[in-house]
Design a protein that fits this description.
The complex is a heterodimer.
Chain A: H1 2-6, E1 7-14, E2 25-29, H2 34-44, E3 54-57, H3 69-76, E4 81-87
Chain B: H1 4-12, E1 14-21, E2 34-40, H2 45-48, H3 50-60, E3 70-73, E4 76-77, H4 84-91, E5 99-104, H5 117-136, H6 139-142, H7 146-157, H8 161-172, E6 184-187, H9 210-217, E7 226-230, E8 233-234, H10 241-247, E9 255-261
Helix pairs in contact in B: 7-8
The chains are: A alpha+beta, B alpha+beta.
Chain lengths: 93, 262
Protein backbone atom coordinates (compact mmCIF):
# COMPACT_ATOMS: atom_id res chain seq x y z
CA UNK A 1 0.00 0.00 0.00
CA UNK A 2 2.70 2.44 1.04
CA UNK A 3 4.48 1.79 -2.24
CA UNK A 4 1.59 2.86 -4.45
CA UNK A 5 0.94 5.88 -2.22
CA UNK A 6 4.54 7.06 -2.35
CA UNK A 7 4.63 7.11 -6.18
CA UNK A 8 3.68 10.21 -8.10
CA UNK A 9 2.35 10.42 -11.66
CA UNK A 10 4.32 13.17 -13.27
CA UNK A 11 3.65 14.97 -16.56
CA UNK A 12 6.56 17.06 -17.86
CA UNK A 13 5.77 19.79 -20.39
CA UNK A 14 8.26 21.86 -22.34
CA UNK A 15 7.84 25.64 -22.25
CA UNK A 16 9.51 28.33 -24.35
CA UNK A 17 12.15 26.83 -26.63
CA UNK A 18 13.01 23.89 -24.35
CA UNK A 19 13.40 20.57 -26.20
CA UNK A 20 10.43 18.20 -25.94
CA UNK A 21 10.80 14.92 -24.04
CA UNK A 22 9.71 11.90 -26.08
CA UNK A 23 8.44 10.26 -22.94
CA UNK A 24 6.72 12.91 -20.85
CA UNK A 25 4.65 10.76 -18.47
CA UNK A 26 6.57 9.25 -15.59
CA UNK A 27 5.83 7.46 -12.35
CA UNK A 28 8.43 8.45 -9.78
CA UNK A 29 9.03 8.30 -6.04
CA UNK A 30 7.24 11.11 -4.18
CA UNK A 31 10.29 11.53 -1.93
CA UNK A 32 12.37 12.75 -4.86
CA UNK A 33 13.17 16.45 -4.76
CA UNK A 34 13.05 19.18 -7.39
CA UNK A 35 16.88 19.14 -7.44
CA UNK A 36 16.67 15.46 -8.42
CA UNK A 37 14.09 16.23 -11.13
CA UNK A 38 16.25 19.00 -12.62
CA UNK A 39 19.19 16.57 -12.86
CA UNK A 40 16.89 13.89 -14.32
CA UNK A 41 15.51 16.14 -17.08
CA UNK A 42 18.98 17.49 -17.94
CA UNK A 43 20.31 13.95 -18.26
CA UNK A 44 17.34 12.81 -20.38
CA UNK A 45 17.64 15.79 -22.72
CA UNK A 46 21.44 15.81 -22.74
CA UNK A 47 21.54 19.34 -21.37
CA UNK A 48 24.87 20.41 -19.89
CA UNK A 49 24.79 20.12 -16.08
CA UNK A 50 25.98 23.71 -15.75
CA UNK A 51 23.29 25.28 -17.94
CA UNK A 52 20.11 26.65 -16.46
CA UNK A 53 16.87 24.71 -16.38
CA UNK A 54 13.82 26.27 -14.74
CA UNK A 55 10.86 24.26 -13.48
CA UNK A 56 7.43 25.79 -12.95
CA UNK A 57 4.36 24.83 -10.96
CA UNK A 58 0.94 26.03 -12.09
CA UNK A 59 2.74 28.16 -14.70
CA UNK A 60 3.44 30.62 -11.91
CA UNK A 61 6.43 29.88 -9.68
CA UNK A 62 9.65 27.86 -9.54
CA UNK A 63 9.62 25.47 -6.59
CA UNK A 64 12.56 25.33 -4.16
CA UNK A 65 15.21 22.69 -5.03
CA UNK A 66 14.39 20.96 -1.72
CA UNK A 67 10.67 20.58 -2.38
CA UNK A 68 9.63 16.94 -2.65
CA UNK A 69 7.33 15.96 -5.50
CA UNK A 70 4.79 14.66 -2.99
CA UNK A 71 4.67 18.02 -1.13
CA UNK A 72 4.08 19.83 -4.43
CA UNK A 73 1.44 17.32 -5.41
CA UNK A 74 -0.40 17.74 -2.12
CA UNK A 75 -0.27 21.52 -2.08
CA UNK A 76 -0.82 22.51 -5.70
CA UNK A 77 -2.64 19.77 -7.59
CA UNK A 78 -6.23 18.65 -7.46
CA UNK A 79 -5.89 15.84 -10.02
CA UNK A 80 -3.86 12.67 -9.53
CA UNK A 81 -1.20 13.96 -11.92
CA UNK A 82 1.54 16.42 -11.04
CA UNK A 83 2.15 18.72 -14.03
CA UNK A 84 5.49 20.52 -14.15
CA UNK A 85 6.69 22.79 -16.94
CA UNK A 86 10.38 23.05 -17.73
CA UNK A 87 12.16 25.78 -19.61
CA UNK A 88 15.72 26.84 -20.38
CA UNK A 89 14.70 30.45 -19.71
CA UNK A 90 12.84 32.03 -16.82
CA UNK A 91 9.52 31.76 -18.68
CA UNK A 92 7.17 33.00 -15.93
CA UNK A 93 9.50 35.48 -14.23
CA UNK B 1 -3.41 39.90 15.53
CA UNK B 2 -0.67 42.07 14.14
CA UNK B 3 2.14 42.69 16.56
CA UNK B 4 4.54 45.40 15.41
CA UNK B 5 6.95 44.93 18.33
CA UNK B 6 7.32 41.23 17.62
CA UNK B 7 7.77 41.71 13.87
CA UNK B 8 10.40 44.37 14.54
CA UNK B 9 12.28 42.17 17.05
CA UNK B 10 12.18 39.20 14.69
CA UNK B 11 13.56 41.36 11.88
CA UNK B 12 16.36 42.68 14.10
CA UNK B 13 17.41 39.25 15.42
CA UNK B 14 21.12 38.68 14.81
CA UNK B 15 23.54 35.81 15.32
CA UNK B 16 27.22 36.30 16.19
CA UNK B 17 29.24 34.26 13.71
CA UNK B 18 32.93 33.38 13.60
CA UNK B 19 34.12 32.43 10.13
CA UNK B 20 37.17 30.17 10.27
CA UNK B 21 39.13 29.86 7.05
CA UNK B 22 40.21 26.29 6.51
CA UNK B 23 44.01 26.45 6.65
CA UNK B 24 44.36 23.15 4.75
CA UNK B 25 42.47 24.68 1.81
CA UNK B 26 43.71 28.27 2.03
CA UNK B 27 47.35 27.30 2.35
CA UNK B 28 48.78 30.76 1.77
CA UNK B 29 46.72 32.31 4.57
CA UNK B 30 48.44 34.59 7.09
CA UNK B 31 47.08 34.84 10.63
CA UNK B 32 44.59 35.78 11.98
CA UNK B 33 42.40 33.13 10.40
CA UNK B 34 39.00 34.12 11.72
CA UNK B 35 36.49 36.83 10.90
CA UNK B 36 33.68 37.85 13.26
CA UNK B 37 30.31 39.32 12.28
CA UNK B 38 26.77 39.87 13.58
CA UNK B 39 24.47 38.52 10.87
CA UNK B 40 20.70 39.10 10.52
CA UNK B 41 18.68 35.92 11.04
CA UNK B 42 16.33 36.92 8.24
CA UNK B 43 19.09 37.32 5.62
CA UNK B 44 21.09 34.84 3.57
CA UNK B 45 24.80 34.00 3.73
CA UNK B 46 25.61 34.95 0.11
CA UNK B 47 24.30 38.48 0.87
CA UNK B 48 26.42 38.84 4.02
CA UNK B 49 29.82 37.50 3.06
CA UNK B 50 31.45 40.39 1.19
CA UNK B 51 33.33 41.80 4.22
CA UNK B 52 34.49 38.40 5.42
CA UNK B 53 35.72 37.55 1.92
CA UNK B 54 37.48 40.91 1.54
CA UNK B 55 39.27 40.14 4.80
CA UNK B 56 40.16 36.68 3.53
CA UNK B 57 41.36 38.04 0.17
CA UNK B 58 43.82 40.33 1.98
CA UNK B 59 45.14 37.39 4.00
CA UNK B 60 45.77 35.18 0.97
CA UNK B 61 46.73 37.91 -1.55
CA UNK B 62 44.14 36.89 -4.13
CA UNK B 63 40.55 37.87 -4.83
CA UNK B 64 38.15 35.37 -3.30
CA UNK B 65 34.57 35.58 -4.53
CA UNK B 66 31.49 34.04 -2.89
CA UNK B 67 31.29 31.49 -5.73
CA UNK B 68 34.81 30.25 -4.76
CA UNK B 69 33.76 29.19 -1.28
CA UNK B 70 31.15 27.21 0.63
CA UNK B 71 30.22 27.01 4.29
CA UNK B 72 30.26 24.06 6.63
CA UNK B 73 29.30 23.58 10.25
CA UNK B 74 29.90 20.37 12.16
CA UNK B 75 30.45 18.45 8.93
CA UNK B 76 27.15 19.72 7.45
CA UNK B 77 26.78 21.88 4.36
CA UNK B 78 25.05 25.23 4.99
CA UNK B 79 22.61 25.84 2.14
CA UNK B 80 22.95 29.21 0.46
CA UNK B 81 19.21 29.56 -0.13
CA UNK B 82 18.04 29.01 3.46
CA UNK B 83 17.74 32.02 5.80
CA UNK B 84 20.63 32.27 8.27
CA UNK B 85 18.29 31.95 11.26
CA UNK B 86 16.76 28.76 9.89
CA UNK B 87 20.22 27.25 9.32
CA UNK B 88 21.21 28.12 12.89
CA UNK B 89 18.03 26.58 14.35
CA UNK B 90 18.58 23.53 12.17
CA UNK B 91 22.22 22.83 12.87
CA UNK B 92 23.05 24.27 16.29
CA UNK B 93 21.46 22.25 19.07
CA UNK B 94 23.52 23.57 21.99
CA UNK B 95 23.64 27.34 22.23
CA UNK B 96 27.34 28.10 22.04
CA UNK B 97 28.11 31.52 20.64
CA UNK B 98 29.63 32.67 18.43
CA UNK B 99 28.52 30.18 15.83
CA UNK B 100 31.81 28.90 14.42
CA UNK B 101 31.49 28.25 10.68
CA UNK B 102 34.17 26.72 8.49
CA UNK B 103 34.80 28.53 5.18
CA UNK B 104 35.96 26.01 2.60
CA UNK B 105 37.17 26.31 -0.98
CA UNK B 106 37.61 22.74 -2.21
CA UNK B 107 35.24 19.85 -3.01
CA UNK B 108 32.30 22.14 -3.76
CA UNK B 109 29.05 20.25 -3.03
CA UNK B 110 26.82 19.85 -6.12
CA UNK B 111 23.66 20.53 -4.17
CA UNK B 112 24.43 24.20 -3.51
CA UNK B 113 22.68 26.81 -5.64
CA UNK B 114 24.78 29.46 -7.36
CA UNK B 115 25.34 32.14 -4.69
CA UNK B 116 25.09 35.20 -6.97
CA UNK B 117 22.80 38.06 -5.99
CA UNK B 118 20.64 37.45 -9.08
CA UNK B 119 20.13 33.79 -8.20
CA UNK B 120 19.32 34.69 -4.61
CA UNK B 121 16.80 37.31 -5.82
CA UNK B 122 15.20 34.74 -8.11
CA UNK B 123 14.89 32.06 -5.41
CA UNK B 124 13.61 34.56 -2.84
CA UNK B 125 10.91 35.94 -5.14
CA UNK B 126 9.86 32.45 -6.25
CA UNK B 127 9.32 31.53 -2.59
CA UNK B 128 7.13 34.62 -2.12
CA UNK B 129 5.19 33.67 -5.26
CA UNK B 130 4.68 30.17 -3.94
CA UNK B 131 3.57 31.54 -0.56
CA UNK B 132 1.08 33.85 -2.27
CA UNK B 133 -0.17 30.96 -4.39
CA UNK B 134 -1.07 29.26 -1.09
CA UNK B 135 -2.49 32.37 0.54
CA UNK B 136 -4.28 34.16 -2.30
CA UNK B 137 -3.98 31.88 -5.36
CA UNK B 138 -1.10 34.11 -6.43
CA UNK B 139 -3.37 37.10 -7.03
CA UNK B 140 -1.63 39.62 -4.78
CA UNK B 141 1.97 39.04 -5.88
CA UNK B 142 0.94 39.01 -9.55
CA UNK B 143 -0.81 42.38 -9.11
CA UNK B 144 2.43 43.94 -7.87
CA UNK B 145 4.93 45.72 -10.09
CA UNK B 146 8.42 44.47 -10.82
CA UNK B 147 9.68 47.43 -8.80
CA UNK B 148 7.70 46.25 -5.77
CA UNK B 149 9.10 42.72 -6.18
CA UNK B 150 12.61 44.16 -6.23
CA UNK B 151 11.90 46.30 -3.17
CA UNK B 152 11.02 43.16 -1.19
CA UNK B 153 14.41 41.64 -1.96
CA UNK B 154 16.46 44.84 -1.77
CA UNK B 155 15.05 45.64 1.67
CA UNK B 156 16.36 42.27 2.91
CA UNK B 157 19.77 42.97 1.32
CA UNK B 158 19.89 46.45 2.87
CA UNK B 159 18.15 45.44 6.10
CA UNK B 160 15.31 48.01 5.78
CA UNK B 161 12.34 46.90 7.87
CA UNK B 162 10.01 49.79 6.92
CA UNK B 163 10.71 49.45 3.19
CA UNK B 164 10.00 45.75 3.39
CA UNK B 165 6.70 46.14 5.23
CA UNK B 166 5.52 48.97 2.96
CA UNK B 167 5.24 46.29 0.26
CA UNK B 168 4.85 43.11 2.33
CA UNK B 169 1.74 44.35 4.18
CA UNK B 170 -0.34 43.68 1.08
CA UNK B 171 0.85 40.08 1.01
CA UNK B 172 -0.20 39.67 4.65
CA UNK B 173 -3.47 41.67 4.67
CA UNK B 174 -5.24 41.86 1.38
CA UNK B 175 -8.65 43.48 1.57
CA UNK B 176 -10.30 41.53 -1.19
CA UNK B 177 -8.63 38.15 -0.66
CA UNK B 178 -8.90 36.12 2.52
CA UNK B 179 -5.97 33.84 3.31
CA UNK B 180 -6.78 30.32 2.02
CA UNK B 181 -3.75 28.41 3.28
CA UNK B 182 -0.81 29.19 5.55
CA UNK B 183 2.67 28.95 3.98
CA UNK B 184 4.47 26.76 6.51
CA UNK B 185 7.35 24.29 6.23
CA UNK B 186 8.35 21.68 8.79
CA UNK B 187 11.96 20.55 9.04
CA UNK B 188 13.32 17.49 10.78
CA UNK B 189 17.12 17.22 10.72
CA UNK B 190 18.25 15.02 7.84
CA UNK B 191 15.05 14.94 5.74
CA UNK B 192 13.50 17.26 3.14
CA UNK B 193 10.95 19.69 4.57
CA UNK B 194 7.26 18.74 4.77
CA UNK B 195 4.63 21.08 3.41
CA UNK B 196 0.89 20.39 3.34
CA UNK B 197 -2.21 22.53 3.02
CA UNK B 198 -2.96 24.20 6.37
CA UNK B 199 -6.09 26.36 6.62
CA UNK B 200 -6.20 29.21 9.14
CA UNK B 201 -9.22 27.53 10.79
CA UNK B 202 -10.06 23.97 11.75
CA UNK B 203 -13.22 22.27 10.48
CA UNK B 204 -15.08 23.32 13.64
CA UNK B 205 -14.12 26.97 12.92
CA UNK B 206 -11.67 27.15 15.82
CA UNK B 207 -8.33 28.74 14.89
CA UNK B 208 -5.79 26.20 13.62
CA UNK B 209 -2.97 26.03 16.17
CA UNK B 210 0.65 25.05 15.66
CA UNK B 211 -0.14 21.68 17.21
CA UNK B 212 -3.07 21.11 14.79
CA UNK B 213 -0.77 21.99 11.88
CA UNK B 214 2.05 19.67 12.99
CA UNK B 215 -0.40 16.78 13.42
CA UNK B 216 -1.64 17.37 9.89
CA UNK B 217 1.84 17.56 8.33
CA UNK B 218 3.49 14.83 10.41
CA UNK B 219 0.68 12.57 11.69
CA UNK B 220 2.95 9.93 13.21
CA UNK B 221 5.17 12.22 15.27
CA UNK B 222 5.18 11.96 19.08
CA UNK B 223 5.15 15.65 19.94
CA UNK B 224 6.05 15.12 23.61
CA UNK B 225 9.59 14.18 22.60
CA UNK B 226 10.21 17.19 20.34
CA UNK B 227 11.13 20.83 20.79
CA UNK B 228 9.36 23.06 18.26
CA UNK B 229 11.43 26.05 17.19
CA UNK B 230 10.87 28.96 14.83
CA UNK B 231 13.00 32.12 14.65
CA UNK B 232 15.06 30.73 17.54
CA UNK B 233 11.99 30.66 19.79
CA UNK B 234 10.34 27.64 21.41
CA UNK B 235 6.88 28.41 20.06
CA UNK B 236 3.94 27.36 22.31
CA UNK B 237 1.91 24.66 20.57
CA UNK B 238 -1.37 26.52 21.10
CA UNK B 239 -0.23 29.49 18.99
CA UNK B 240 -2.67 30.12 16.10
CA UNK B 241 -0.89 29.62 12.75
CA UNK B 242 -2.51 32.72 11.25
CA UNK B 243 -0.81 34.81 13.96
CA UNK B 244 2.47 33.05 13.22
CA UNK B 245 2.12 33.77 9.49
CA UNK B 246 1.74 37.50 10.12
CA UNK B 247 4.38 37.85 12.81
CA UNK B 248 6.90 35.00 12.68
CA UNK B 249 7.23 34.46 8.90
CA UNK B 250 10.63 34.97 7.34
CA UNK B 251 10.73 37.62 4.58
CA UNK B 252 10.15 34.84 2.02
CA UNK B 253 6.62 34.73 3.52
CA UNK B 254 7.02 31.19 4.88
CA UNK B 255 6.93 30.09 8.51
CA UNK B 256 9.92 27.79 8.92
CA UNK B 257 9.46 25.36 11.82
CA UNK B 258 12.17 23.11 13.13
CA UNK B 259 11.27 19.92 15.00
CA UNK B 260 14.16 18.77 17.11
CA UNK B 261 14.22 15.62 19.27
CA UNK B 262 14.55 16.77 22.87
Amino acid sequence: MSETQSKINLLLKAAGDAPIMKQNNWTVEGDHTIAWLVAFIKKYLNIDVDSSLFLFMNQSFSPSPDHTLSSLHQCFTTSDKLVIHYSTTNAWG
Amino acid sequence: MDDYEIRRNIWEGKIPVEFDFDTREFTSIRSPQSYFAMLPRISYFPLCLSKALKFLSLSVDEDIDVKDVWLEYNGQILKWHYPIGLLYDMHVADVTLPWVINVRSQNHPDELVHPSKDTMRHIFLQAIKEADQLKHRGQVISSMTKDEHNRLFDSVVNNKFDDFWSVNKRLMHDETNKISYIPIRFYEPGSPFKQVLISPSNEDDSPCTLENAIRKALPTIDLSSYTVISQGINVPLNTPVIWMARNLSYPDNFIHILLRKS
